Amino acid sequence: MSQFDGATKVDGGIKFKGMTLKPIVEQCEGCAKAAEFEGDKYCTLYPVPEKKWANGKCNSATHVKIAVEEQAKVNPLKASKRAARGR
Ligand code: SF4
Q1: Tens digit of pLDDT at every position of the chain (87 positions)
Q2: Residue 61 CA to ligand 1 centre (angstroms)
Q3: Can you say how many angstroms the Cα of residue 27 is from the centroid of all Cα atoms in its chain?
């Protein structure tokens, strides 16, 4: 079963629950909130994914949060190096 069951294809996207959804953008690739409908992927949270990336990162992107966590793992190391230098 698709997340977008009952959706219909329209020009440039799909119509779902009264809203027109635009396909996800390149930055959305890998996000768990994206779901497929008839060969294209759409965001299950936002009708226009492009807008979520217009001013930086999408705040709901699951794949971007993972990258942030990886960064956080690196930081304690930097902190301990600083401590070792006596700062
Ligand atoms: S939640 Fe954000 S990153 Fe994920 S598919 Fe939707 S718009 Fe794209």
Answers
A1: 679 999 999 999 999 999 999 999 999 999 999 999 999 999 999 999 999 999 999 999 999 855 556 666 666 666 677 777 776
A2: 5
A3: 7
